[in-house]
Every structure is written in C-alpha cells, then in structure tokens.
Amino acid sequence: MSETSYTDSAYQSSFLTDHSIAYLAREITRIYTRNLQDAIAEHGILIGQYHFLRVLWEKDEVTQRELANAVGMKESTTFTALASMEKQGLITRTRDSEDRRKMTVKLTDKGRGLKSKLIPIAKAINDRPLTAFTPEQLSNLKAGLEILRNSLAGEN
After folding, report:
1. How are strands ordered across the β-sheet holding 62-63?
2. What is the tens place of the pLDDT at every residue in 100-132?
3. Which residues pair with 62 in a beta bridge?
4. Does the N terminus or the C terminus of the chain have fewer Cβ atoms within 10 A?
C-alpha cells in the first residue's frame, strides 16, 4: 500500500475540506477555544483575556507591545482588552517615564491569583481528548505538530 503524496494530482483534485490539515487544525482550535471559554467563564474571564494572563503569568511587567506580540494580537485590540482587564482589577498599566509611548503592564494580586484556578482548568480541557492516544501516538503527534509549526514559521 503506497502512501498518498500531498503533491499527487489525484490528491489535489480530491482535496476535500475535512482532509485539509489547516481545516482540521482550525476545527480543533475552535473546539478547544470554545471549551476553554465555557470553563473559565464562571471566573469572569474571556478567552482573549486568558491569553494575556498566560503570558503575564510567565513574565510579569512587560510592555503593551511585547504583550501584543506574544499573544499575536494587534496593539489596538490589545489596548481594548487590557483596558477591560484593568477595570476588572486584573492588571495595572503605567507609562514609561522616559518614553511616554511605552505602557508597562503588570499583574495585580487578583490577576496573579487566577493562575492557580485557571491553569488546572486549561490543563483538564487540553488533556481530556488526549486520553484517546497511546503514549507513542501522542509523542508522534506532538513531534509532527512541532515540525508543521516550524515549517509554517519558516524555521525549516
């Protein structure tokens, strides 16, 4: 039995949406995102806010630009989300005294305290469907996804 090459004309002519790696990745991301949003909603956190919190839990006191880049959002979208998070008491923002264009974002105790509540929720959401894999399958899946990510990012 021969393996299908992704450059074969037969494959390309029968390129069904649900056979596309990009489509499957999008669907998986959409489902994970919805499940996580539903699970963290009781804590008053939106999925976009969660992504900012994850970055800040790893490295607190970053500029708004660094935070936007780390999450992969535009600065204008980041500004709006951070304003909401500041109103909720999750972060503080202060202007750099030397460069007024720079805004430093820092977690409050409330924002920092959410880590112990939200990380276990996110881990459970992440891990639940992975029980369908053997350890070897899971290792191969992770390795394959890392190769795909690096290839798309131009690292290969």
Report:
1. 62-63, 103-107, 91-95
2. 778 899 999 999 999 999 999 999 999 999 999
3. 105
4. N
Say how far apart CA 74 and CA 65 lie, in whole Å.
9
Which phi-psi region, left, alpha or beta, contains residue 119 (left: φ > 0; alpha: ψ -120 to 50)? alpha
CA 121 – CA 125 distance, rounded (Å) = 6
Instruction: Give per-residue pLDDT as tens, 49-93.
Output: 999 999 999 999 999 999 999 999 998 889 899 999 999 999 999
Q: Which two tokens stand for residue 146?
A: 């890392």
Domains of the chain: 17-45+114-156 (no CATH), 46-108 (1.10.10.10)
Q: Is the pTM of this model over 0.90?
A: no
